[in-house]
Design brief:
- This protein is mainly β and 1098 residues long.
- It has a 24-stranded mixed β-sheet that branches. A twelve-stranded antiparallel β-barrel has the order 69-70-71-72-73-74-75-78-79-84-85-86.
- The protein is flat and about 105 Å long.
Length: 1098
């Protein structure tokens, strides 16, 4: 019916057509009829329809008359008007044209389903397919190609565009007027309240889409909104729309979804795949899966968008942009699981790209989660990002915004990062976040990984970056938290340029916190590495920064670098340079123009590597003030270094020694210039040092010593006044000589009466003071020290390594103490509940827990306990005999020592509970057996082991009262005393030197007072809760190693106990019962224990 109406409309408007338009139409009428089967005014309407724009696009309805105002032509299988919608699938093919001139009509629109002036609450345009197969040399001159098109003054409540397909091949670029190719296309003054675009596919194969002759490139996609300003969409839902391009030449912009919305957009799993193709020409182009433009009050959210570009070449020199998500100008934008994969994507050296998994630009909130940019076997340059997240203020709105970026990844393998010939440098980010409005940045677990690749030119490679945009009127207000961000390079080289690596980079912030930042460089060549770099931040904190360099060549390495940071706390920074690396400078913490810096537990390790210049734990400059400085350590093992410094300030800052700065030396090391700013020095001596010094120190010429005046002593390369020197010896026989330091000719070391020498073997330490101020030169050996030490100051003690031995025995004692508690609490309760007069019943249970004991070594104990036994009731007395066993694992830690022990025990025992009256009872237990301790110690340069088997015994006596508060509610108060004993032993220790551990009998006395509330809630369910106070009395472990007393360790202290349990029994006569119990401990013992029990009464 609508076909007849259209013919009639066409006849009514023919007479009003301008002469020019009429002549053009008459000229093509016969050809179009020949090739399209159309002769609308004179024959019955065929399957296809060709109409003037007066009918389909540019017509207006005034007083029931149509008017024509342009020359635009259409080819369509199905034409819809008014409130109509496609009711059946349309599958049409535009076959190859036999005549090359056929269809040469400007602005021809080709579509399978064309909707014009649609209106209604719900319109569905589904399941249309248009196939265009173009031969070379033919021209269609189509302005638009689409499977489904909505145009005209359409006003729609809900529009569905689903499962439509456009298939293209051939020489499409011959159509110089083409400006849009889309499976589903919306144009002109169209208003849509809600739109769903789902499952639309644009498939292009063996096509020429190189529109190089046009001023601007056509947009192609599976769903496009033509004019972002004239088409209005309120809400958009777009999912599973796809573009697939293979074996084609391209000079186009490619989108899976491109639209703007006034309210909100939700997209899911939209994708672009381009394979075995070439981008040609010098036009700027975009490849984006989801390109969304929002409003100042709306939101954009996208999930699982993806772009895959494989075996593709970019022959031109133009800028290009590739992204899975590009969401802009909404009050809130979010992207999750966006993915871009470039596999064998080759670009010209002058073609600069902006490539990222997600590009987000929001007004108030932006969230980028799990974005991945994966580049393989490719050559690219420009800016590479896992995600780019930015906020900009709206009408000077300075309310706090939010940026969240988690788990964004840039991964590069077997690729060339080319030099950016159009800019100063190129860059690569796991995530880059910026803001022009006050913002809270939360950047976590973002990373850059580069392997087996080459870097050309200047590059900046950053794990995570956050910067605020400030000016005179808007000072720093943004805050940033960085957590577990990383950069990892392996087998990557730099050519003709510099590559600077940043784990974290933060600038122009009110505060910044960086936790767990990691940079790893292996078998690579780069310029400089910065674990954390902070610039213009009012207050900052960097915790747990780790920089690891192995088998690489670099200019400089910084753990943490600060510039113009007002107040900073730097903790637990770790820098390790190993495996024959070559570096010019290593600085743990560098601070310039920073008001106050606290530096704690900075560690630098240089092993089997060379540092040509200076190594410094911390360098402070530009009027920087050093606050707290402690626990900072530099370790050299078979290293060659120019100069070595601890924590110090240069001439423009505070010249300060850090407290407890420590230098650790092992193997054979060379320091060419000087050592300074350490107050503890540790030498680890082994057999090789019997003939080779641990340290060769001094310059090859006097000119090299010009900087040694930093020591305050022009003649000494190393000033050891007020220094503690610790010598750890392993693998040598007592009395063997060894070499410590070999000084260059004319060089010396100064010591004073405040210098302390400590010589340690595995478990003991010998100490001396220097007899008088001295200057040492030449080779300094153990024999040299004998001449300068004060014999009267000598003392010998057990060291912290020995404390790990006694703590492990204490762990076995703690296991026995827990076993006694288990018998007195759970064991007797189970025996009582299962006991029957004139019968013997069986019971059993297990429980386990984690406990920490507040002693010198911070003993941690994981344990599991088992008890099985039999009980009976004789008058008012419950009697029980039982077998017990337990298994545990303990750890203890000291400064450079740690011990681990496996514990177990097996024993038997007796217990009873006697009821003096209905409310008052007495109970007691006695048990004993064998306990074993399997110890393994880990020390700075050695270790030790032993196995110990000891007898144990334990007993308790207690009393309690029970009061019935109601028929179902009862309370209990109790008290008890327990005694635990572990037999004395003498143990031979498997260690580098001959050592013996001996300890006396160990006794632990405990008192506990507590109360419980028991409630029989129903016939099947009961619960109980309790509180108790426990005091552990005399419990010192007296032990010695090699006849030297070990500092006493103890379980003594106060502990609070809370308990909660629940029991279920199906009926009073049921033999089965299930229960769960929990205990918590605070105080000297801290932790929790739990029990799940299944009981059966025989």
């Amino acid at each position: 019916m609508h076909l007849t109406l259209l013919c009639s409309l066409f006849q009514r408007t023919r007479k009003k057509t301008t002469k020019k338009a009429s002549a053009r139409f008459q000229a093509h009428k016969i050809q179009l009829t020949r090739f399209f089967g159309i002769f609308c005014p004179f024959v019955a309407m065929p399957r296809h329809t060709l109409l003037a724009s007066a009918v389909l696009l540019a017509m207006t309805f005034q007083a029931h008359a149509w008017s024509l105002n342009s020359d635009i032509w259409y080819y369509a299988d199905q034409v819809l008007t008014g409130s109509q919608a496609a009711s059946e699938p349309v599958d049409s093919t535009l076959f190859p044209l036999a005549n090359p001139e056929a269809g040469h009509m400007p602005n021809l629109w080709v579509s399978a389903t064309l909707g014009h002036d649609l209106a209604g609450n719900e319109v569905r345009l589904d399941n249309s397919t248009l196939t265009v197969n173009r031969p070379l040399g033919s021209e269609l001159t189509a302005g638009r190609l689409s499977a489904v098109q909505v145009t005209g003054a359409s006003d729609i409540g809900t529009l569905y565009l689903r499962n439509n397909t456009l298939k293209l091949s051939g020489a499409l670029a011959e159509d110089t007027d083409t400006y849009e190719i889309a499976t589903a296309l919306i144009t002109d003054q169209t208003n849509i309240d809600s739109l769903t675009a789902s499952g639309n596919l644009l498939e292009i194969d063996h096509a020429n889409l190189a529109y190089t002759r046009q001023g601007s490139l056509p947009d192609i996609g599976s769903f496009l909104r033509e004019n972002l300003s004239s088409v209005t969409i309120g809400q958009l839902a777009a999912d599973h729309n796809a573009v697939r391009i293979t074996n084609s030449e391209l000079s186009v912009n490619v989108f899976a979804v491109r639209a703007s919305v006034t309210e909100s957009a939700q997209t899911l799993d939209n994708s672009v795949v381009i394979q075995d193709s070439t981008f040609v020409g010098d036009h700027q182009f975009d490849v984006i899966a989801v390109n969304g433009l929002g409003s100042d009050t709306g939101s954009l959210a996208s999930q699982q968008s993806s772009v895959v570009i494989s075996n593709v070449k970019h022959d031109g020199q133009s800028f290009y942009s590739i992204a899975a998500d590009q969401l802009q100008s909404a009050i809130s934008v979010s992207s999750s699981d966006a993915s871009v994969i470039l596999d064998n994507f080759q670009t010209d050296a002058k073609a600069t790209g902006q490539i990222c998994a997600s590009y987000l630009h929001g007004r108030h909130n932006a969230e980028a989660l799990n974005g991945t940019l994966d580049i393989r076997h490719s050559t690219v340059t420009g800016t590479l990002r896992g995600s780019l997240v930015a906020l900009s203020s709206l009408n000077s709105d300075l309310t706090f915004g939010s940026v969240v970026a988690h788990n964004n990844t840039l991964a590069i393998n077997d690729s060339m990062l080319g030099e950016n010939l159009s800019d100063d440098s190129a860059s690569a980010y796991g995530v880059e976040a910026t803001s022009g409005t006050p913002t809270s940045f939360d950047l976590s677990s973002n990373s850059v990984s580069i392997s087996d690749s080459t870097i050309q030119g200047s590059w900046q490679i950053v794990g995570a970056s956050a910067s605020g945009d400030i000016d005179f009127f808007n000072p720093q207000q943004s805050t940033a938290v960085f957590t577990n961000n990383s950069v990892i390079l392996s087998n990557t080289q730099t050519q003709e340029g510099d590559a600077d690596i940043f784990g974290i980079f933060a600038k122009n912030l009110l505060s910044a916190q960086a936790v767990g930042t990691t940079v790893q460089i292996a078998d690579s060549e780069v310029s400089s590495v910065y674990g954390v770099s902070l610039d213009s931040v009012e207050s900052a904190q960097a915790i747990g920064t780790s920089v690891q360099i192995a088998g690489s060549e670099l200019n400089s390495v910084y753990g943490v670098r600060l510039s113009s940071v007002d107040s900073t706390s730097i903790q637990d920074t770790r820098v390790a340079v190993t495996d024959h690396s070559v570096v010019n400078t290593i600085i743990g913490v560098s601070a310039r123009s920073s008001d106050h810096v606290d530096i704690v537990n900075t560690s630098i390790v240089i092993a089997d590597s060379t540092v040509k210049g200076t190594v410094s734990l911390a360098r402070l400059g530009g009027k920087t003030f050093l606050g707290t400085s402690s626990g900072n350590t530099l370790t050299l093992s078979n290293a060659t270094v120019g100069s070595v410094m601890g924590v110090y300030g240069d001439y423009s800052s505070q010249d300060s020694f850090g407290e407890n700065s420590r230098l650790i030396l092992s193997g054979n090391n060379t320091v060419e210039n000087y050592l300074t700013h350490f107050d503890n020095v540790d030498f680890y001596v082994t057999k090789e040092n019997a003939s080779a010094p641990i340290l060769t120190l001094g310059a090859t010429s006097q000119d090299d010593l010009s900087v040694s005046t930093l020591n305050g002593n022009d003649s000494a390369v190393w000033d050891l006044s007020d220094t503690s020197i610790n010598i750890h010896v392993s693998g040598l026989n007592p009395g063997d000589s060894f070499e410590l330091i070999d000084l260059a000719e004319g060089q010396s070391i100064s010591v004073s009466t405040d210098t302390v020498f400590n010589k340690s073997d595995t478990f003991t330490t010998e100490s001396w003071k220097v007899a008088e101020d001295s200057t040492l030169s030449g080779t300094i050996s153990s024999d040299t020290l004998k001449d300068i030490l004060d014999a009267s100051s000598y003392r010998k003690t057990a060291n912290s390594n020995a404390s790990t031995l006694s703590d492990s025995i204490l762990g076995s004692m703690a296991m026995i103490n827990q076993a006694t508690e288990f018998v007195a609490d759970e064991g007797l309760l189970m025996a009582e509940s299962s006991a029957r007069s004139d019968a013997t019943t069986l019971f059993g249970a297990m429980y386990g827990g984690k406990s920490s004991y507040d002693n010198a070594g911070d003993l941690d104990l994981d344990s599991m306990h088992l008890i099985v036994g039999a009980s009976t009731r004789v008058s008012d007395t419950v009697l029980a005999a039982f077998f017990e066993a337990g298994w545990g694992d303990s750890d203890n830690r000291y400064a450079t020592s740690s011990g681990n022990a496996d514990h177990d025990y097996y024993g038997v025992g007796l217990a009873l509970r006697h009821f003096v009256s209905d409310t008052f009872f007495l109970d007691t237990s006695l048990h004993g057996g064998m306990s074993s301790t399997d110890y393994s110690g880990r020390f700075a340069s050695s270790g030790a082991k032993f196995d110990d088997n000891s007898l144990f015994a334990a007993a308790h006596i207690g009393a309690g009262m029970r009061f019935a508060l109601t028929d179902t509610l009862m309370t209990e108060v109790y008290g008890r005393y327990a005694l635990n004993w572990l037999s004395s032993e003498s143990i031979r220790i498997d260690a580098a030197d001959r050592s013996t551990l001996e300890y006396d009998d160990v006794f632990v006395h405990t008192l506990r007072f507590g109360t419980r509330l028991r409630h029989q809630l129903t016939d099947q369910f009961a619960w109980s809760a309790g509180l108790a106070y426990e005091r552990t009395l005399q419990s010192d472990l007296k032990a010695d190693v090699n006849n030297l007393a070990i500092d006493g360790v103890s379980l003594e202290g106060n502990t609070g106990v809370g308990e909660l349990s629940a029991t279920y029994r199906k009926s009073a006569d049921s033999p089965w019962a299930a229960s769960i119990a929990l205990k918590g401990y605070v105080g000297q013992r801290q932790g929790a224990a739990g029990q799940v029990r299944l009981d059966y009464r025989f």
